[in-house]
Amino acid sequence: MSEKEKKTEELEQEVVEVEEIPTDTDEEVQEEVKSDVEILQEKLEEMEDKFLRASAEIANITNRNRNEREQLQKYRSQDLGKKLLTSLDNLERAMAIEVSDEQGASLKKGIEMVLESMRHAFKEEGIEEIPAEGVAFDPTLHQAVQTIPANDEFSADSIVQVLQKGYKLHDRVLRPSMVVVAQ
After folding, report:
1. Residue 162: beta bridge partners?
2. C-alpha distances in angstroms, 87 versus 45, 57, 81, 106, 126?
3. What gap in Å lies between CA 183 and CA 179, rounded to an integer?
4. Kind of pairing between the strands at 142-148 and 177-182
5. What pLDDT does 12 receive?
6. Fold of 78-182
7. The dihedral of CA 104, 105, 106, 108: what is its sign?
8. DSSP code string of the chain
9. Per-position pLDDT tens, the chain of length 183
10. What span, in angstroms and rounded, lies between the C-alpha atoms of 49 and 135?
11. What is the C-alpha to C-alpha distance for residues 24 and 87, in angstroms, rounded to an integer?
């Protein structure tokens, strides 16, 4: 047998072997493809859900950070304001002192200028005095350190006297007013 005939015979055997391999029907192939498509569709939906959740989380984090930055900016002078309130109190006490000579008057004038510049700086930063005398007592803004009986002159729960001024920064209380309240 020639070599050509041997190769032809080998190829024929391979063709016979291939023909013996069972082939899937078209329906089985379609079912398999459908199940693969369904699995892929489920995975796609799962990934879309994860993507939407991650996007929402990123948006929440961004909003939270922006709000925190705004709060920090709004209340940035809170600590400094608290520290300077005692200096403001001392300057106001110095202004209450009566002077009789010219040197004392000029010193008092200098203190008055410093006091006004501090009040102006406080106002620019949003720090303002809490109104107290003659208004109704509010425990969120005022601290009652003494009470007196109410009478015709002072109604119940009204502030009679301010012992120490209170201040707030925007809507946040830096120091409550120390007051005497009529009961």
Report:
1. 179
2. 65, 46, 10, 20, 18
3. 13
4. parallel
5. 67
6. Nucleotide Exchange Factor Grpe; Chain A, domain 2 (2.30.22)
7. positive
8. --HHHHHHHHHHHHHHHHHHS----HHHHHHHHHHHHHHHHHHHHHHHHHHHHHHHHHHHHHHHHHHHHHHHHHTTTHHHHHHHHHHHHHHHHHHHS---SHHHHHHHHHHHHHHHHHHHHHHHHTEEEPP-TTSBP-TTTEEEEEEE---SSS-TTBEEEEEE--EEETTEEEEPEEEEEE-
9. 677 677 677 666 665 554 444 555 667 777 777 788 889 999 999 999 999 999 999 999 999 999 999 998 888 888 899 999 999 999 999 999 998 899 999 999 999 999 999 999 999 999 999 999 889 999 999 999 999 988 878 888 899 999 999 999 988 999 999 999 998
10. 57
11. 94
Residues 6+ apart with CB under 8 A from 77: 125, 126, 127, 169
d(CA 183, CA 168): 25
What are the domain boundaries of the chain? 29-74, 78-182
In this predicted structure, what is the pLDDT of residue 15?
55
